[in-house]
Amino acid sequence: MKKMLAAATMALSLGASGLAMAEPLKIGMITTLSGGGAGLGVDTRDGFMLAIKQSGNKDITVVTEDDAQKPELAVQIADKMIQSDQVDVLTGIVWSNLLMAVVPGAVAQGKFYVSTNAAPAALAGQGCNKLYFNAAYQNDNLHEAVGEYANKTYKKMFILAPNYPAGKDSLTGFKRYYKGELAGEVYTKVGQTDYAAEIAQMRASGADGIFVFLPGGMGISFMKQFAQSGVKIPVMGPGFSFSQDVLPAIGDAALGAKASGQWAPDFDTDVSKKFLADFQKEYNRLPSIYAVQAYDAAQLILSAAGKASVKDADAFRNELLKADIKSPRGNFKFNTNQHPIQDIYLTEVVKKDGVLTNKTVEKIFTDHGDAYAKDCKI
Amino acid sequence: MLTRENTVNLVLALLLLVAPLAANAFGQPFYVTLATRIAILALAALGLNLALGLGGLVSFGHAAFFGIGGYAAGILSSHALSYEPMMFGLPGTVQMPVIWIVAVIAAGLVALAIGAISLRTSGVYFIMITLAFAQMVYYFAISWPAYGGEDGLSILVRNQFPGTNTMKPLSFFLVCYGVLLAGIALFALIRASRFGAALQAARQNETRVATVGIHPYRIRLTGFVISAMITSLAGALYADLNRFVSPSMLSWHMSGELIVLIILGGTGRLFGPLAGAALYVAFEFALGGLTERWQFFLGLILLGVVLFARGGLLGLLAGKAKHG
Amino acid sequence: MTLALALEQLLNGIQLGVMLFLMAAGLTLIFGVMGLINLAHGSLYMVGAFACAAVAAWTGSFWLGLIASLACAAAAGAIVELAVIRRLYDRDHLDQVLATFALILIFSEGTRWLFGDFPLYLDIPALLQGVVTLPGDASYPVYRLAIIAVGALIALGLYLLIGKTRLGMRIRAGESDREMIGALGVDIRTLYTLVFALGSALAGLAGALVGALQSVQVGMGEPVLILAFVVIVIGGIGSIKGALYGALLVGVTDTLGRFLLPQLLALFVDPSQAGMIGGAMASMLIYVVMAVILAVKPRGLFPPAHA
Q1: What SS3 state is found at C131?
Q2: For a Cys staple, C274 with which of A86, A262, C134, C265, CB 3.0–4.6 Å?
Q3: Predicted interface score ipTM higher than 0.85
Q4: Would you call B296 an interface residue with chain C, using a CB distance cutoff of 8 Å?
Q5: Which residue of C lies nearest to B145 if distances are taken between CA atoms?
Q6: pTM of the model
Q7: Mean pLDDT in runs of 10 for chain B (324 residues)?
């Protein structure tokens, strides 16, 4: 009798969770787990796996491999996952150049790709594809948001980014919304560590605001040197420049910096607070935006897998498009080019309980899409 | 003549052919791709081996030629697929033989320029100046927006080779294998020729070569240019393998890897590059599957090879090189 | 272009040059005395930075961290020399390149194993924070001036060490004729270990000093390593004087190039294009300079006289 009750309860709970008819699904995660950029990949993997673990779904397998930030390695791993491991969905790549190497081939072989971070314009506009979804943003979005904020607040901006496609896109995105005067537009070397020359230029330029896009180690170096230089102009940038994974290394030099982002750890919603608590409990650190994006990507895949089989590409795609998830970011739906429409906020770096983090200040964009959706002909 | 070295060489060549054929038969196309990667890297290292193994020219900038070949493939292909002409109104092409010719000529010209200046130096200065030139090409490629810059250039559909469907992994492998064998034959021919003898003599004793009336500089420059051309051909194949070309093909890490391949296999040996490439790719694949920290163990293994296995894999298998 | 801006940029160039000198001095010493190409020098730079960050976080004192960086880098250098480098002296450059390349992999991944994936936090000590005012109403960070001062002191110290002490004499003799000093009874093995440790300590110091200014992360040494090689090649391998002049030349050229080239181009093309192309040309500038110098003087500016 007890056994029957237990079995019935289990069946009921399985049915209630809606995963009883889940088909086996294999996910291939390619991300950067070694080298200087590993912090972003580790957050991606951890955020993704948290959602998978929470779902309790035993039919989903995730194969994870390290791309060491090398495009050839990423292509090789993708080939292996598709041909040998027979994955159904690929995900996880952090960098736009690796993404561009992998996605065209993957979708040509009929595999879905759900991006957890990289979102180059090429795949948002003309290069869009039915099998390619982006759970993060479009690369330009966060820069556009800062441009919008700067447009209302500052008259003479000095803008700076590294001299590579993402850097150029960032300044283009910023200028799309900022219509004021430019005190300077500088392109630095990728991986540059010493910004003394550029800071001197900023000091001499008469600007009333500075926009920088310098992800990873570049941003750390810049902010520390900037704080030391005595230049008092306010600094702002897209969320990547002040993400949770680099804030501890920048230290107090980051205080007061404004950034744009889809999420900050102080969001007041139940979903966000639960995600924050779960992540901290599992991994003993604060999540960055990369973890949130990966978490949402996993949720998207899970929600689609629960209602359709990945073998039926059209059905699976339709379920993905519904974006039936509860994101810590709040509003989330897909645009016609399968990139997100979401809210973007202004945040400020503050110290809370002795820990540096981003605090939400105000909303910049509501239901913001991207500039390339009109070129996409899906 | 069936010396120990020749036997080992034959076995290696056969293994590289049989393994992918078997993998294909068993429905594991990924291992065919892996074998193709070995063949291409072997060819690239073979090119370098001409300059380094025979000529004693330690070029730390051969990635420049590898990348030039790759970009030749990428640029010609992208212009052909988008129907836009390149500069001077020339059309692109998706035919591999044409791409190979362009890659080889482009690399030859660049090598002529680089070699002319670099070969005026020697020893560690030569190493450094070849590195510097490669870095120049690398930064140029990153900053040139037209062909993707740091993001690189995708080759959506693999370029064509007459008589076969290159999109099939096995067909493309056979093309690369054929080119590799041709390269090995060329290397053997050069090594046995008068030119090759002069090149090796210049490595061993420069003064004596000059007294015999041969200009070491000219011999080395010729060797350097031919070596660059072979490596560039491998680069074009590599771009087609990955259907992608990026500045990372030009980085000094790539130059370092090419040198590693040669030393792993055995410097100056005919099949050294092939043995080295096979070992390296096997390590990377096997270790990468086991642990995230695989680069640590790869470093330990490489260190072990240098310290204890002088002469590389072929040195271990086939004994000391017979000079001929 | 004001006097203040020009002065600030010049100082920036000198500071970069000084930091490169710390790296290049060790590298050129090791090559000059032992004939060894050491690709792992950048890893020792990284070790110094991590040691400083770790100890500074643990004790709260940057100065203790600095001492730790010197000690750890020297110790790491000595261990590596005893375990690995020792066996490479008789080998050709090729084997040295491969072995030290392998060491880079081991150090990088090992550091990541020990310290984790995220960059470490290292800040400038309170004593050296803030700016000073220079002629022309320019402001310049105290810390960077301190780095220039340290570099000058080290240059002086090395000059005295090499020129005026017995150790220096042995080092100079070793550069000229390795076999001879062995025959004359000098303990070569200890000398080599000492020189390697000294070079490593200098690299570690550079790493710690710069780590406070930039970021402490795995792989931070590699870009610096390449530049350091460019410096010693320009200056003449084995010559500390050459390393100093080469470093200053490279530092000033790079900084001024990054600053002036885009402005120059902006006269001809629109600012964002000028920025992109100028940035690219600036990256290549040092290598062009090196190629030109080597074309004219194939052994660098101040090649030491060798046997």
Answers
A1: strand
A2: C265
A3: no
A4: yes
A5: C276
A6: 0.81
A7: 80 87 82 92 95 90 95 88 71 84 94 91 84 87 75 77 81 92 94 90 84 87 95 95 88 89 86 91 81 82 83 75 56
